[in-house]
Amino acid sequence: MNQEDSEVFVDASAAKNYDFQILSQWKGYNSANDKTNIAENVYVFGSQNIFKKLNGNLSVRPGLKRIGAADTAQSPVSSEYVWNTSLGGTYPLWVADSKLEVYVEGVWTTLQTVTETRYVFDKWWDNTLKKDVCLFVNGNDYIQMWTGGSATIASATGSTITKSGSSSWQQSGFMPTSETPAGGATTQFDITEPVADTIRYTWDTTGTDPVINATTAPVGSYVYINAQNFDAANNGVFVVTGVGANYFEVTNASGVAESNKTIGTGSLYLNTKKVLVIGGVLYGYTGGETTTTLTGVIKDPSALVATTVVLQGVYIYDNKPADGFSNDFIKIINNQVYVGSYTSRLCYISSNTDFTNYTVPSPRIAGSPELLTLDDTLNGIGVRQGLAHISIGSGRWAVISFTDVTVGTDLTQQTKVDIKPVANQAAAYAHEFIDNNGDNLVYLAKDQQVRTFGDFNNSFVAAYPSLSQEISTELSAETFTGGGLRCIGDFTYVTAPNSGKAYLYQVRQTVDDNNQVVVERLWHSPFIWNATRIDDYNGTVVAFSNANPQMYQTWDTNQWYDDSPSDEQLPYTSTLALSYRTGGRRQGLLSFDKLFTEGYLTTGTPLNLTVNYNYLGVTNIITVPINSVERPAYVFTPSVGSLGDTSLGENPLGDELGEGAELSKFKVINSLSLTNVFEYQPIYSSETTNAQWEILAVGTNSHVEEQEQANFIINKQRN
Asked: Is residue 686 part of a domain?
């Protein structure tokens, strides 16, 4: 023990003579109920960055640790996906700063330059490649695919790239394709510049027909141009931006106009998949996928250094599932791609062997495409028990099932759409706010409440209960645009990027005093994580920034500050606002002059106590230190070599956390001014880096004044 002369004690004999009413069995967070008329062991609105630990204490949250290099660009992460591949790799992807990027070898590397910000991802099994591929949509009428191909350079020449390691490029996820060049050596082009920075390649009908049309060179596809007789500036790998009769266009600010140019000994590939992305620059190749060395590489890669990351290019499937359809979200169920739009009643379903095939056969068989016409526009798609659950309109869900039926001698499959009505505005807020917690769907509804359902029954409203009654008012006032809902472990996270808050709901098992397993359902106070989305990256809960292209590890008990985008250590304010205490008689006055606090903290943690006298402190507000340099708390410090008790946070994924600094037990009695009040509220707070603390018990030496009621609140009527 130490600090025996602490100023926070009046004196030892005085302290023991007071009868303190102690509160220690804490419940969860509640911001919806009147905080002056609620159980005294809850914490209330005004709290932030506080959670209830498994040991029952109320604790400050750990800090955010940045993953990847610092990036101060003023651009939020607008979309993200953590892709766990069938090959055992994990690729976090995000859209930020006008780029689609992937985290490879500890570096965020550009896959595409983009203009859209809202992307939705999922993975699809390719039985030809014997691996899964990543599919994504962004509101346009095409589906994009990335194989996950990635490698590092061992060496390069003017037209070859050799990868590190013994595996082939194909084994590393790069596209194995057999492609035929367009045209031939005598195929002749006129190359023009119809508008600035746009280069048009037009076959002038001389030589072999290259067959240029919207099918062979769809907008968004890649072209590989390495023609012997073309100007060097006109060769390269480009994205098709326009196509017409016998011509295609690309964006190429360096391109030059020239006429009557034959391909010669080079090659021209339309709609090619043989594309690399290196440092955001496109490179093409013609062969070598089954070896460690790619050949026919264009643009000259000889200046690339060893260990440089190489990615397979993204491939675009135009007009899939339909020309002009806005592909706002996808969901892959039983290897069929469900494609929906916020502005349409249609839902397209692909073949389970070809995600580009949406042609419905007659008769329809198992695994073949289907087209659903629902009775309202779509909000998003979830899956439960292997069945698609499509949110439609303001208050309905459509459950999609398939039944095998024999028609004559043919085995066919019938589609059933079961409409399940729920309360008005209880449909899903958006696709990004639907997830699974076990076998139950959890979602944010249009009424901005978190809801769930399990088995459907005749009581539809009961099957979609709100989980967020305790924070319903707070959620109703939020703006969730750009956010999402994610279930990880026993937590459900809901992000509101506009306010920077993450709302945390937890269903967990604890053991009571009778050694019985008890299920506890609770909300924690909002965490100020300033995140757009939350996800699981290799067993770590990560937050994606609402301000910069950054990904952060959460729940890291090895640091108690937030990393900034520019390597600063940022403090965060943690506030624990307890409910008001009335002494059990609302019309009577309480009298007290001492407040007791027991908990844990680290040496040097500045912790303050604020007491509101009456509602919102209208009578008085007193702030005193619990622990400071001038007035340190009385701390129970274990002897050297003693095991002692440490109090660390719990990993929400269920793994053991690494130990941070050891927390010491403290007890403090603060002397306050003697005031008669109807109610009072204790509030604990810290706002420095490395502040670690948790509260175990709180109480005052309060007693009810002898008078039955305060005379000044009596309404005295006049005749």
From this structure: yes
Burial class (CB in 10 A: 0-12, 13-18, 19+), 403: exposed
Note whether residue 674 is domain-resident.
Answer: yes
**What totals of helices (H) and strands (E) does the chain contain, helices first?**
3, 56
pLDDT digits (tens, 9 = 90+) for 69-109: 999 999 999 999 999 998 888 999 999 999 999 999 899 99
Residues 6+ apart with CB under 8 A from 305: 153
For residue 662, give the 3-state DSSP assignment: coil
Residues 6 or more apart whose Cβ sits within 8 Å of residue 149: 169, 172, 173, 174, 175, 311, 312
Q: Is residue 164 part of a domain?
A: no
Going 535 to 539 to 541 to 544, the CA torsion angle's sign is: negative
Q: Is the pLDDT of residue 526 over 70?
A: yes
- State the Cα–Cα distance between residues 104 and 311, nearest whole angstrom: 9
- Give strand pairing partners of 161: 156, 294
3-state secondary structure 237-303: EEEEEEEECCEEEEECCCCCCEEEEECCCCEEEEEECCEEEECCEEEECCECCCCCEEECCECCCCC
The residue segments making up the domain with residue 260 are 178-272
Quote the CA–CA distance of 119 and 99 in Å, as a whole number: 11
- Split at pLDDT 50, 70, 90, the class of 681 is very high
Cα–Cα dist 632/179, whole Å: 75
Distance CA 259, CA 251 (A): 19
| Count of domains for the chain | 2
pTM: 0.91
Q: In angstroms, rounded to a whole number, what is the distance separating the alpha carbons of residues 660 and 648?
A: 8
Selection from 175, 170, 161 nearest residue 296 by Cα: 161
Distance CA 127, CA 351 (A): 12
Is 626 within the bounds of a domain?
Answer: yes
Task: Kindly report, residue by residue over 256-295, the tens digit of the pLDDT.
Answer: 999 999 999 999 999 999 999 999 999 999 999 999 999 9
Q: What percent of the chain has pLDDT over 70?
A: 91
Within its chain, how far is the Cα of 39 from the centroid?
33
Q: Which 3 state secondary structure label does DSSP give 622?
A: strand
List the structure tokens of 34: 């009147």
Adjacent-strand bridge partners of 272: 222
Measuring CA to CA, which residue among 362, 404, 398 is closest to residue 382?
398
Backbone angles phi and psi of 14, in degrees to 5: -70, -40
Q: CA-to-CA distance for 368 and 391, rounded, in angstroms?
A: 23
Query: CA-CA-CA-CA torsion for 369, 100, 283, 165, nearest 10 degrees?
Result: -90
Single out the residue in 229, 255, 272 at which a domain terminates.
272
CA distance 688 to 575: 12
Query: How many Å is the Cα radius of gyration of the chain?
Result: 32
pLDDT in tens, 101-156: 999 989 999 999 999 999 999 999 999 888 999 999 999 999 999 999 999 999 99
For residue 258, what is the domain's CATH number? 2.40.30
The first and second tokens of residue 302, run together, are 């000889």
- Starting at the earlier edge strand, list the strands of the sheet with 450-453: 434-437, 440-444, 450-453
So what's the pLDDT on residue 709?
Answer: 58
Predicted local confidence at residue 703, as pLDDT: 78
DSSP H or E run through 134 = strand 131-137
C-alpha closest to that of 277 among 113, 138, 116: 113
Cβ pair 135, 355 in contact under 8 A: yes
Among 221, 249, 272, residue at a domain's last position: 272
